[in-house]
Amino acid sequence: MTMEDFSPLEHLPREIVYSIIEYAPESAFALRLTCRMLRSHVDEFALQRGTIILADEVRLFCSERVYYFQITINTFVPASRSNLFELRLKLRDPSNCFRSQIERSNNINFNTNGRVSKYNKYVLKVVTPFPNEEEASSFEYLVEAVGPQIGLIDLSQISHEDELNLLWNLSESFPTKKLSLCIPHLHSSRVMSNLLSKLEARKIDYLMLNALKIPEPQKFMLDVSLLVRSLHIRQYDFDVHRLSSTNFLGAANVDWAPTIIEMFSRRLDTLKIENEYYCDYLSKASADELISKLPHIGKKVWFRASYYRNPKGVNYKVNSHIIKACRLNASNRVLSIKHKSRLKEEF
User: Where on the tree of life does the source sit, at the highest rank (predicted)?
Assistant: First the structure.
């Protein structure tokens, strides 16, 4: 058989096929059906460690039993990349031994800043400490299929320190620089000190923290701003003993402006604060100081925080930074200070 007997597509170099898949992962199945040569190239690509991010988010949470923890791992893959992800699952498990343990949900909508994206969710449940080789292998199988990099790791609804350590150790199998952490009931000094050490060791660049209280919150925010570039803090509301309307992370009647300004003088250049439950945490005097100083701090600032002191709103420019105090919707208002080059950034 001569080269003329092949389809023109079969003349494509392997590297070109790889580039096509990287650019359009949804084409993987269609390319496999074209000819034997392309099928071979696609399968080779899918069996490699991978060069593109397939999973935008991996979410881990655990349920405590008497003698073990049950870990639920939710892997969120954009619909456009699901074909390639499922091919990676299939080729790594020809006998369907592990693949059958993964539940799939299609067409899950994520709404990010008004933009809706479709995802498929893949759910694996394992027991840990791993009681046998099969449990460990099913976890390793998923890790290998997800690939060497993910968008975000989310450790959800952590109730105590053992859960945090367990989920953290498992999450290290999914390399990423972005972490979301929900610790509504963890607020000891030891836990927060250990968390800072973990963030530093893992070189986390983006942290989203959902918390009720933090010991010495000003010190923690200054310490974490040495480690991460982007910080998103969401004030958790437990609503058993209602706290002061000026509460933020367990501290009341605090002038937050000096802390926030100092944070931006460190590694941090992006800060988002959501505190819709305690509307008086940021005073007008604090807001005025932030407006006065952040645009002149010497970097391109991205700052947005819940703010309820100026319902009429403001909108002007200072030193290339756009300053707004406005309503997001009927119940949420924000103060925004952003460099003009970063106005379209989503966070």
Answer: Eukaryota
104: alpha, beta or left, given left = phi > 0 and alpha = psi -120 to 50? Answer: beta
Please give the helix or strand (H or E) that residue 183 lies within, else none. strand 178-183
User: Above pLDDT 90, what percent of the chain?
Assistant: 54
The tens digit of pLDDT for each residue in 115-164 reads: 788 999 999 998 887 767 777 889 999 999 999 899 999 998 888 888 89
Residue 1: pLDDT above 60? Answer: no
- List Cβ neighbours of 71 (8 Å cut-off, separation of 6 or more): 60, 61, 62, 125, 126, 127, 128, 166, 167, 170
Distance CA 70, CA 53 (A): 27
**Given this model, what pLDDT does residue 333 score?**
87
Packing angle, helices 14-23 and 36-47, rounded to 10:
60
- Residue 328: its pLDDT value, please? 72
Q: Average pLDDT of the chain? A: 87
Burial of 73 (0-12, 13-18, 19+ CB in 10 A): buried
Nearby residues of 240 by Cβ (< 8 Å), 6 or more positions away: none
Rg over alpha carbons for the chain, rounded to the nearest Å, is 24
Domain ranges of the chain: 3-47
Q: Which long-range contacts (CB under 8 A, 24 or more apart) does 219-225 make?
A: 220/192, 220/196, 220/249, 221/259, 221/260, 221/263, 222/259, 222/262, 222/263, 222/266, 223/196, 224/196, 224/199, 225/262, 225/263, 225/264, 225/266, 225/267, 225/268
Q: What is the pTM of this model?
A: 0.87
- For residues 127 and 119, what is the distance between their CA atoms, to the nearest angstrom? 26
pLDDT of residue 66: 64
Three-class secondary structure of residue 1 per DSSP: coil
Pairwise CA distance, residues 170 & 154, whole Å: 12
Contact by Cβ (8 Å): 88, 46 = yes
Which residues are CB-neighbours of 214 under 8 A, at least 6 positions away? 187, 192, 220, 249, 250
